[in-house]
Structures are given as C-alpha cells and as structure tokens.
Amino acid sequence: MIPSRLTFITLVTLLAFGLAPASLDAKRKKPAYQPPLKIVDITTAPVPFAPGHGPMALTVTVELPENADEFDLLEVSSLISVPTRRSIRFLASRQPLNTVVIEAGKSHVKTTLLWDGKDQTRQHVPQGTYTYEARAKLMAREEGFTKAKIVSLFARGTLDVSAPQALAKQPPHLEHVPFVSDESGSDLLQEEGEDPGVEDQPEDAGDAEKVEP
Q1: Measured between alpha carbons, how far is 70 from 104 in angstroms, rounded to an integer?
Q2: Which of 15, 22, 57, 134 has the highest CB neighbour number within 10 Å of its CB?
Q3: 117: number of Cβ within 10 Å
C-alpha cells in the first residue's frame, strides 16, 4: 500500500511541475492593462524640420474616457532627448476639459506642443535623430492643487532634425510619427500630481492649447 501511495504522490508532483511552465506562459500572454486615457496619434510639422526656421509642432491626439469630467484638466507632456537618454527639453500643456466639446461616448482631443529646436542650454541642436516620450494625464483640482486621476501609457518614438540646407530640397509638410506605447518611461514624465515647471493655463485661455516652457 505504501509503494502505490508514493507512486501516486510522485505522479502528482511530476504533473504539477509539468503544468507550471504552461501556467506561467499563460500569465505572460495576458494583455497589458490599457488605461481608458490613450494617445492614439502623433504628428509633427514641418517636415523636414531645421532649427532656426520656426518651431516644430508636435500634435498629440488623446482619446478621453467615456466618463470624462468637464471640470478636469487634460495635461499632455513630452520629453525630447538624445539616444543616450540625456534630457534635451521638457514640453507640457494643460487645458480644462470644459473648453473642449465632449461628445457622447469617447472624444478625441488634439494638443499641440511647440519645440523651438533648442536643448536645455537654449542652443539649437545639431542635425540628427532624437527620441521623445509623450504622456497624457487627466488631472482633478482639489483644494487649490491638482492630482492625477488617470494616466495614459507612454508613447515613444523618434524625431528627425535636418540641417538648414535640407529645407530647399522638399517643401515642408505634416507627417504622422510612428510610436509604441508601454508603461515605462523617464522619471520626469512619471511624476503624478503637480509637475515642476508646469503652470495651469488661465480659464479664459484654455483653448489656446499651445504652451512652451
């Protein structure tokens, strides 16, 4: 009787270890959490962009959740850096949702951030490829402070900066920028609540949409 019981226990143990990898794989394949606040499109203009000939407009299209409160603030921010991860410029814009027409169901809001092509020392950057990280937040006002309610995933991609001579080769145009979304990003964009260096727009100027720190 004892040997048969040991055999049964051994079989159960083997089955448990055999099924463990499969269960782990199933957990890994589960879709990542998708916040109801999403960045769905990013465009840049002009293309090509060369510093010293006007700013680059980085337009971020955000999909709002169905239960968006018109008294909330929508914050869209972007960090531009070189591939070595050295910070170049932090751009941000806030606008109250009561300045946006919130239609039935989900609504899309476009926010334009302007980059003058300068780095953190206010010098024009050289020709090359630069990375960006963009993120959107829904902010609620509480007792004079703002607090993040919903935070989107990061949208990450690259921006090409041309030499001034490149402007003569082709007319400037608007271009959709490929990007990927994930949860990781720079510490500056991960901070919730009040972000340093970002000021609320006045209530009567929310429809301007463009802020350059």
Answers
A1: 13
A2: 134
A3: 20
Neighbours of 57 (CB within 10 A): 16
Contacts of 186-190 with CB under 8 Å at 24 or more apart are 186/79, 186/81, 186/85, 186/87, 186/133, 188/79, 188/87, 188/90, 189/77, 189/79, 189/133, 189/135, 189/154
Which residues is 41 bridged to in the sheet? 61
Helix (H) or strand (E) holding 6: helix 2-28
Indicate the DSSP class of residue 211: B
- The full set of domain ranges for the chain reads 1-30, 38-194
pLDDT digits (tens, 9 = 90+) for 57-111: 999 999 999 878 888 999 999 999 987 777 789 999 998 888 766 655 568 899 9
Question: Of the candidates 57, 8, 20, 64, which has an alpha carbon nearest to the alpha carbon of residue 39?
Answer: 64
CATH code 2.60.40.10 for 38-194: yes
Nearest to 58 by CA among 73, 47, 70: 47
Q: Which pair of structure tokens corresponds to residue 138? A: 């829904």
Tokens 């429809």 label which residue? 207
- How far is CA 147 from its chain centroid? 18
33 DSSP assignment = P
Taking each continuous run of H as one helix and of E as one strand, the counts in the chain are 2, 10
Please give the order of strands across the beta sheet that includes 173-176.
108-115, 56-63, 38-47, 173-176
84: tokens are 């070595």
CA distance 207 to 192: 24
Task: Give the Cα separation of 68 and 76 in Å (integer).
Answer: 15
